[in-house]
Amino acid sequence: MQIKRLLVFTLTTLFCLLTLPGALGYLAKEYIERGIYLNNLNTALHLEISDYQQGWFSSSFNLTASVLDEYEESHIEISTLQVQLGHGPVTVINRQPGIGAFYLFTQRKTDTSKQPSLIAFARAGFLGNIQLNLNLNMDSSDSQETKLQPLIASIEADYEFDEIHYRIHWQGASSNDQNSGLNVKNLRLAGAIERKDDQSWQGNTEFKAEEIDVPNLPLRIKQLTFSIHNVINIEESAQATHLIILAKSNDLKTPWSHWQNLTLDARIHRADLAAMSAIYDLIEKVYLEFDSITDEYAQLEYMTAIQTLTPALLSDRATLNLNQLSFYSPTQKQHKRLTGKIEFPDLPEYMDDHLLSLIAKTKGKIELTEEGSEPQQIEILKGKTSINNKTLSQSLFN
């Protein structure tokens, strides 16, 4: 009897090992196509698979990434990867065995600075989860002036991509070139996204930076933590988006201000995050048109994006509750703290891309507390800012 049971168990195991891989291969293709469909629907990066070779134990295909050139009305190819797809139920990745329905593996070596070498693998389990790991070695050029450290990313999701958790860590970059100085250390991005439907997502994101120093801008950030909680909604009709924005930084220097010991706690109600698509347009322009993100023409593109993004994000009667903005000003050697509320207007569609129109119709009241002084009342009305009923003649933040 025991021999019969052992024989039945052995035959059943062999049957599953031989028949499951083929069935899982077809299932894997459906999930890959679904993921590509959702990506193309919600991002500016267009993905396409071709030359799909379906096998019983493994398959292969080419994955092409491109961006849309609005002027030529065609897609510009960024990269094409050859992807190997293995079918479970037992998978081996980097010599590590595991139980999974299927796995992907791809790698690319390149000598061009815009296309880093890449190693990527993913494993899908029977319990409805997918794990994706990417390792980009971005220092692919022979230049000794700029050293780019690897970027490591991991993503966990369910089969339908209804819930996604992600982590990205870039160790940084450094440059010895005096004309284009750069020093970046330990950038981390982590968060979760939940899909309500094909047009609507919500979640939270946290960004941390140990140091970002670009003297030519000038820009210097040290020990920054920035988080956005609650809703990320890309549906154009979504007018009820609520955000919680928290930030801390030991040192933040920009061309316009220099703050130390910065703390920000703000709530934005009725923001329209469909405007965030402007960020995709900006990334596309910088990637295609400029060799460096610090190019003077690229900086003009940044300012143009701010001109269009800010009104689209904050119009339609959005409100900003500033629970706290506190910092130390090295130039004035004072601690400052601002609290209050700002109400943004409902702009007509033809005015949505004008920052001056937004400023002219914005109103609000903010209390400014400076070390050693009485609190001051700041009022924003009809494009003018006043302190204690006197027109403001200089910036508060310097």
Characterise the protein shown here.
- This protein is an alpha+beta fold.
- 20% of the residues lie in helices and 51% in strands.
- It has a 20-stranded antiparallel sheet that branches. Strands 4-5 form a two-stranded antiparallel sheet.
- A hairpin with a 2-residue loop joins strand 12 and strand 13 (200-214).
Characteristics:
398 residues, alpha+beta, 20-stranded antiparallel sheet, two-stranded antiparallel sheet, 4 helices, 20% helix, elongated, disordered C terminus
Task: Give me a quick take on this structure.
InterPro entries: DUF945. This protein has helices at residues 2-42, 277-289, 296-314, 355-361; strands at 45-53, 58-69, 74-87, 90-93, 96-99, 102-108, 117-124, 129-137, 146-148, 151-158, 163-175, 183-197, 200-214, 219-230, 241-253, 258-271, 319-329, 334-343, 363-370, 376-381, 384-387, 390-391. By secondary structure, the protein is an alpha+beta fold.
Please describe the biggest sheet, giving its number of strands, its sense, and whether it closes into a barrel: 20 strands, antiparallel
Helix and strand succession? HEEEEEEEEEEEEEEEEHHEEHEEEE
The averaged pLDDT comes out at 76
Q: Note the total helix count.
A: 4
Query: End-to-end span in angstroms?
Result: 87 Å
Looking at the structure, what is the overall shape?
elongated
Number of strands: 22
Low-confidence stretches: 394-398
Rg of Cα set: 26 Å
Which structural class best describes the helix and strand composition? alpha+beta
Helix content: 10-25%
Tell me the strand percentage band: over 45%
